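User:
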Amino acid sequence: MSIELNPPDRVGPVAVGMSMGEAEEALRSLPGFVRLGTEGGTLETRGFATYSDGMAIAAHLGTGGKVEAIEVFRPLGGTPVMLDGVDVFAGLADEVIARFAARGELVTEDRGRTIILPGRMVVFGREDIPRPENPEAGLHFDSVLVARPGYYDAP
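Assistant: Predicted structure:
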C-alpha cells in the first residue's frame, strides 16, 4: 500500500471539501489504522489518525466546516507517501527538493525547514536542517501538507 498525494484535492482517500465525518471514515479505511484522536488515549483531536507503522494523518477543517487541508506525518517505515512518483519521506529531503525544484517554482522558507510548491499547494516540513554540528538533523521531511487553493492567503 502507498498513500498518493494528489494536490490540491486529495491525500489517499481523504479529500478537500469533505465533512469531518467523511474524512474520519476515509482515514479509518486505510490499512494499518490504529485509532482516531477522539478514540481513547490522551489526544482529543478530530480528524487525526494514527497507523501501525507510525504514520499519522490529520484532516484540517476550514471555517466552513469542511476539510481544507490534509497533512501526513512521516511513517517510521512501510508506507510510501508518493507525489508524482517520488516517495517524499523515504528519500533525503535535499534530494526531494532537487527533484521538485527542477520541475518548476519552489519556495524555501525558515532556512529550509519549510518547502512550498505554491502552484500545487504542497508544503513539506522538517523540524531542523542539517548543520555542521548536527549533520543528521533534518535529513528527511517530517510532514507534507496538501491544501485547497488559497489556504495560505490572508483572510
